[in-house]
Design brief:
This protein is an all-alpha fold and 205 residues long. It has helices spanning 2-6, 27-30, 41-47, 50-62, 67-82, 101-105, 107-129, 132-148, 155-173, 179-204. Helix 4 runs antiparallel to helix 7 (107-129), helix 5 crosses helix 7 (107-129) and helix 9 (155-173) packs antiparallel against helix 10. The chain is globular. The protein starts with a helix and ends with a helix. The relative contact order is 0.23. Mean pLDDT is 80; it is low at 1-40.
Length: 205
């Protein structure tokens, strides 16, 4: 099960700044759900823990028709907009310019992009269930597998994809991508980065 879930968090997803607080490991903050009856949406967001903000905002993304393809295309287009040289990491870009729409229409791209987005869905599911042990194990294994495959990802690579992820969420969520939601995703992604890099380091030692 861990291997299946791994096809997730980052085949390209790897990067937003940890922003100072690592929400995953703060169980008391992350996994204590609070009652939000009889409060406004703004008050509800103020009361929600980071875990719940991530889960709820991803549900909005999942409500988009064909969300895996839509979000996957947005994500990779943004990665290549920020740094076109990142295209060299991915085999599906061979023979294409990053501005070529045919790149995003090919089956190889769609397969990769939808796998990345579906893996985010799996990760959010683990977060929602509170299964931190499995999640951390999966993240470390995934970091090790990237290194074993010859991908020596550095912090800059994680930061690139993380920024693209935040931008994709901003585009998909529009007004619902509030500062608190951004902060929650940034913290969660910081933990993803931290554990994937730790897994790669353990593999190489």
């Amino acid at each position: 099960m861990a291997n299946a879930r791994t096809t997730l968090i980052v085949s390209g997803l790897a990067a937003a700044a940890a922003a100072g607080y690592y929400a995953f490991v703060k169980k008391d903050e992350l996994f204590t759900k609070k009652t939000t009856d009889d409060v406004t949406e703004e008050e509800s967001e103020d009361e929600a823990n980071p875990h719940q903000l991530v889960v709820d905002s991803w549900e909005v993304v999942k409500a988009i028709d064909n969300y895996e393809e839509v979000a996957g295309e947005l994500l990779f287009k943004r990665i290549f907009e920020i740094n076109p040289e990142a295209a060299a990491i991915f085999k599906f870009t061979d023979g294409y310019e990053t501005t070529d729409e045919a790149l995003y229409a090919q089956e190889a791209f769609k397969k990769h992009a939808t796998a990345v987005v579906s893996s985010v869905t799996a990760a959010v599911g683990l977060l929602e269930s509170g299964d931190l042990t499995t999640l951390v194990t999966v993240l470390k294994e995934f970091g090790a597998k990237h290194l074993a495959a010859g991908l020596q990802l550095e912090k800059a690579h994680y930061d690139l994809v993380g920024q693209a992820l935040l931008d994709t969420l901003a585009a998909a969520l529009a007004a619902k991508f509030t500062p608190k939601v951004k902060q929650a995703w940034t913290a969660v992604y910081g933990v993803i980065t931290e554990n994937m890099m730790a897994g790669a380091a353990e593999f190489s030692s």
